[in-house]
Amino acid sequence: MFLTAILFVSVTLLVLKLFRLATHWNDKGIPHESFLEALHRSLWKNTVRNPFDNYDDAVRKHGRIFGSYRGLSAVLVVSELNAAKEVFIKQFPNFYQRTFDIPVGDKLWDNLPGTLPHDDWKVVRSLLGYSFTASKLKGMIPKFDRIAKRSVAHLEKIARTTENEIILNRSIKAYALDSVVAAAFGVDLESEDNPNSPFIKHASDLFNPSFGTYLFMFAPRLLKYCPFAGFPPKATSEFFNKFGKRILDEKRANLDQTIKNGTADILDNLLIAQREDPSSIITDDVLTSQAFIFYLGGVDTTVVTLEMTTFFMTIHPEVQDKVVEEIEQVMGNRDQVEYDDVQKMKYLDATIQESLRFYPISFLIDRFCNKDTTVAGVPIKTGTIVEVPIRSMHFDPELFPEPEKFMPERFLKETSQDGAVQGILTFGEGPKNCVGRRLATMNVQVLLANMLRKIKLEACEATPKSLKLKGGMNFTNVSEKPLVLRVTPYRGMMGLLLIGASVTALAALWGIYGDADLSTLIAHNIWHNRRNKYRGKVIWITGASSGIGEEVAYAFARLGCKIVISGTRIAELERVRNKCEMLSSECRVKILCGDISDTKRHPEWLQEVTDAFGEVHVLVNNAGRSQRSNFEKIPETIERELFDVNVFSVMSLTRVVVARWLEKDLRDREILVTSSTAGKIGAPLSATYCASKHALHGFFEGLRSELSCREFPMRISLACPGPVRSNIRVSAYTDTVGQQYNMPDTAGQKNLMETARCAQLMVSGLASGLDEMWICRQPVLIVYYLAQYMPSVMRMYLLKLFMNKNTLRVRDGH
């Protein structure tokens, strides 16, 4: 009886609540949807048809300001500029909260800027604003430019083929992900070559429509009490919390050097603020969430902006031509896009703005009323939601005459239409607008400035003449069908001049800028996809705690390999393992900590590897040390120790691994050996080191010949790096037992190759079956060729010309 009474009272209260809600707008004197009409639009129409069109229809039917409903809340829909600005700016204290700015019971989400208490939000917003000053934005442009050039190079390869029709979204997603993560975390994911990056997976999972996303849209306050709803997805939250902790620890350890170098990213700036005031609200959880919001809001925002802008330039080639002309005028003969260049590209910026006017990133901006007030003469009670349908505003003919026409000129100062700039709401308005709006636009401009100088966008049969957006409550606008277009090499006047010049100067350019022999460069730039054969394979890398070995581990990690890393420094090996696992959700890593010269442990280690991952597919013999001293001064004990590390340990481990391959008849296995240019050309003050590397060549050439005679298919690749930016000069032997050379990298060592580049070339060469790779910058590379093909000339004349002093400078990267 008691339960029946409770049930009766509950149902009665619910009915009264629904009745009051359904009649909320009856006496307000404004047009309004019925409760059932709004419910039908929210739960049905927005599922089968995109919300942009549904709101446009509602505005046309009821007017620019009308009443509606969302879930159990009354809604005032505002599609009038002055009323919208009243909510966003004039009455901001009454409307500072967005409907999704509420805790949902998830640590990552609950520490986002908007979800924090209002006073805490002010502190965080102020600190974030510091990351977007002109000086800070200038520092991010080189990162964007480097990543953009990598993405454009990929598109150029496609443009030169007959299969040059691309799905736009797929082609630009890697750039969006890499550039946003680089700006927020300071990490380069290289997603173009790493499609299995967990960042891509979790980005997709987070925005996929689900019960949780619908609950988030219509009754977000219930999410805290409905953990089963899965918003945000538990795996996504755990991934970013774990990743954030790793990145914070690494950045905190290197913060002083980062400040000194002037290379701070968004997370670095927040860490600086945290260190200056440890008692502030900037906890590690808050820091992780701030970086996450840039990922959350940045990746899809960048993809949509690029997708819409490139689509409109494709179907409006005259606009594309004007953009290209402006880029050429601003850039001239320079290749590097700079901050000032972006500021001068007004027509490009206007094209982006006009593209987002047509198809805004999101269909809606809303605010939650936290105090009774009046907007545009309409009384608003606490708890009412104000919705501003963005595209309905963008197609208001009073703000944008001839709104159906694509006219970038409307956003140029000299021809701008009244209200056009003020009426664009893509990134919000008022104190709670998108703090990274300028960064987001610059990010897009940098890619387009690079891309349109090399590639022409053309319509093909599959290119739609107009877009139809996908139905459903998507967080950002999504085309119903993939946007397909054709890319061809750009053939403007500058392009023709460059082609003519490049044909006549190709050999000279290689002589100046080449950083590997021709076969290695071809393998890396044309056959790089062959590296995918290593996916899921077991790779054992020695000397993997730093330098080339570390970067080789990252290269294989991006391919989703099972990696074994060996070294003597456990802390460094753990750091490498953490980054490897971050680079791919498929990558698994095992650490073997020990001295490689302890050859008695080699069979034991091989068994550990086999038990953990199965049979080894690739052995990377990378461990080794260098030496700096006059040949007559180095004692025999040091020479023997150097040979133990560089030669005998390598021979021993190779013997143990290859013997197992022979015993088990495991064919098509591979060995990658890190030798050196010193294994081919002698260098002063390194006689013993050169001897050890020459010995490696002799051993592996002999092994290759023997296995060939036994008709056992196994590939051995010898990589010969030149001067590389690593700690090999720090740990080099001297003529004193126990003393290291301790020569750090300095800014003066301009000719040192970056270890990441060296590792990528090595893995590409291995995948292409190259027996030997020469990897070094000029002038070492040309000396290498002379030593190979004209040895007497090289020794008789070149060394006399350089003498020992200059040879030493070249060897050490000066």
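(the above was protein one; protein two follows)
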Amino acid sequence: MNTICEEFDQRIQHEKITGTYQWIQEKLSHPYEERKVFYEYLSNISTDDFTPKQHLILGISLKHQVSITNVQELEVALDTLDEEDIAELIAYYNLENPAQRYQEIKTAIAAPTSYLTTIPYKVIQELHQRGKVPFDRQIFAACLVRFNVWSRTSYKNELSEKAKQKFDNFFPKDDFTLDILMAIFEMELGIEGAFYVEDEFTISAVVIELVRQNYISRSTIQQKLFDAFNNPTLKQNTHGWAKNVYRDLAFTVDENIACQEQLIQLMYNSRNLLVNFALQQLKKMANHQAFNWKLFVDSLEGIVYAEKLNGGLKTALKTLQKGFKKDKALLESGCINLAPIFLQEDNAVQLAAKECFELLETPNEEVKSALLPFVDTMHSEVKSALGDLLGEEATNTTTYETYQQQTYTPIPCTEEGKIVYVSSEDEFIFLASKVLKSNDALDYELFLEAITRYSYLKDTNPKALKPALKQAKKLADDGYLDITARVGVHHTMAAKLICMWLSDTPGTIATEIVRWEDKVKKEDRYKYTANRWFRFFYQFKRVGYIIHQFSQKEMLPLLSTPTHHNFEIAPTLFFKRLQQYQVAKQTPDEVDFCMALCRLNRWASFDKGNLNTTTEHNTIIHYLFTPEATFDPKQIKNFPTLWLTAYMLKNPEKAVTSLFKIYNNEDWWVASPTWNWEVNKRHSDRGHSWTNLDIGFDQEKISDIDSSKNSYFEHHLSNSEFIIADVAHWFSRDGFLQEPLYLNIILRAYSWGFYDPEASESKSILEVVKYNAQHPTPLARAGYLFLTLSLLCSNKAIRAATFDWLSLLIENNYLDMDEFTTAVAKIVASKEHPIPIPRLIEQFDRLASIQGVYADVLYKTIETCLIEINVDHLPKSFSKVLHHYYEVLQIIQQSIPLNIVKKLEQMQQINAVKKEVKKLGKFVS
């Protein structure tokens, strides 16, 4: 026998309880094999003749078996313990200073549903009765209610037969404990998955059993449940648990009538789960002679504005009809209170409400006045049915206009829009620190422009630049590249530029790359960070170009620095900068020149004499600025990337196609079909399948792209740093050519289809949407794909913001109806059903509510969807699409095209949609 077992036997023999906890703590540091033997010894020991002290020694020695998820009751009669035993018990549960221990328990809680202790309830109850610990309702409740975070119990409304037999002696039923148990209705304890000691004693089943045995009165528990319903701090899961307990206690109609005011008050509750439940109970009570119809009618305001309460509203309306038929005196006040229900977009709700108003036997001016503010959101069937009540003038308020896209021509640069550059040393010194924290992309551009003119400050005023250097070193730390929502890649590269500029040992990006390669050779753990730096160095060649110029006698200006608002460059100033390079006989940096081409405002006036073909750079500019000039691949000599950029700018509809050709090592200038995308299904080797967005190339190979060989736009295929802090920088960088940029964000955020985007991706998407809503411009195919994916994605905030962006495209007549409707239809009509139809209906509701040209956008979108839809694969809830079609046809009064009529004829055999199809028959000529 090992020494631990021998020492334990000595303690048992002499009943040496004092110090047992400290003794077992010391033994936990012994080798595992020794402890294993000891625990096996304890599991086989006979306790038949043990005294209470010996039972306590054994219980404390089994400490290893007790965890936060597996609390064991001590196998000892607690009331038989003497003061020495109690003292050791207090030490074991670390309760020498109860107030401090209670605070530690509360502080250590990560979330309300982790409200757990390792202290069994009977222990803390005994200590409290002996005056050893104070009472704290939260702590006592947390000891009583257990919650295993690894294996949550499911809701049960009844104990098993085995548990019932054990229940009487197992669960304490004294008034003190029962009062503590009621705390489950007062605080968040993760109660929906909780139990008492053993997981078969779920708290729900325990409560119901205590009520059944009359330990808790039905009226008491009913009031406690109402307290829980009205507690806004409880989570939905806990409210759902309380609702299930109320349901399974099966209160009679008479019992509910006694509490009808509280049930009716739940109509004002913010949680639809409880509102629905209350309305179901009220429906059952409606035939009782004591039902308070006036209070029910007066409380309608609590539900008529509610969102996502369609089922509850239908229940309420059926109940209300009963009341109106019983007592006609309720009709006027009831209809007045009910009027806002026509803000609800659900057709079934509006039709059910219409039936209530139809019970009015004569037109009523009070009801009419209440309804008039909501006429615009009434569906056409409802308007027609309530025409006599509303009057002809009110029912003819809908407007419709045909949408006409206008040709977009960017506004030429003006003197008023000219950017003011940094003009003093103090201003530059301030900007050097500001650029590291600013999310304004213009600050970054102004800094790069100014550093070429004020680089001498390193020697003349180094002290003033120390704050900027200190900040820069934090961002450009070698250890780890921490790119965040606030500190993006552009901040990091500005920091790297400052560090290398102010370094005591001058270097270049080339020497930085060598330094990182040496670090990786010595320690492989630097490989990931080094590769990220390498990608940034190639992607941000302007920074490297500036660092290289520090060693030159005279620094040349960047060609790409914007001269006017919206990051545009006036041609006249661009030609002046280019002239400086030609005089100095220096070749412009490739990235700098590409960015300048993208930002050039080609619609501004300039001296045509600047257009010539004396150099390859000049030939590229001549091709870009001359509308009739055609591309000739023979002109490509030394700068294929510059030619590609100019070609894509001049042929934006071919931009993505050209980019993919480069990716596939093909000649990008050869004519080929315009790029397109599809929705399909992918299958894994293990038999799994998922809906996938096929954009025309293998996304899994993106990581294989060699960033050192990327062209200017190829970086969009491998750029993973598309986050909040960089969004404005990327869009300002590409100026008049943003199709590849939309492709970039699609690859990052929607690359694997239509599942919920991650939190970081959602933030990036939202930032892109907001940026484009602030700077709306016409889109092309990739842009419309991103717009549509964002309109229909799972994130509600993104969907709302994207609709604002869409509305601005419509208001400015930028929307390409064909591209937009085709994108929506391809997703909606896909047999894979990648998005739930309610998301689409949400956007249709928004379009319908604004009317005017928005109604035309809605009409054409629905018709495109109907043309593309496969009747054999109708998505769930497609009847709502047909309902919107009916509503918009009521406005425009046009016949349904023959190709759609044929689809509708096929749909007549489908139960889920045939009702709506029948209504559409009036528009078939």
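Reviewer note on protein two: The radius of gyration is 37 Å.
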